Amino acid sequence: MRWAPCVALVLLAGCAAPPPAVTLETVAEGYVRVALQLAQHDPTLVEVWRGPESWRPGPRVPVAPLLQRITSLRQELAQVPGSDAVERRDYLAGQLKALEMSARRLLGESSTFAAEALAGFDYAVSPPNEGEAAMSREALARELPGTAPLVTRYAEFKKHLVVPAPRAEALMRAALSACRTETQALGLPAGESVELAFVDNSPWDGSALYLGGHRTRITVNRRAAMDVSRALRLACHEGYPGHHWQFMLIDDELVQRRGWQEFNLAPMFGRHLFVNEGAAEVGADLAFPDEARAALYREVLFPLAGLPIGDARKLVRVEGLIASLEPIASHIISEYLDGRTPHDAAIERLREEALTLEPDALLTFAERYRSRVLAYPGGRSVVSRTIGDGGATALRQLYVERPFAVR
Question: Looking at the 3D structure of the chain, how many domains does it have?
Answer without folding.
Answer: 1
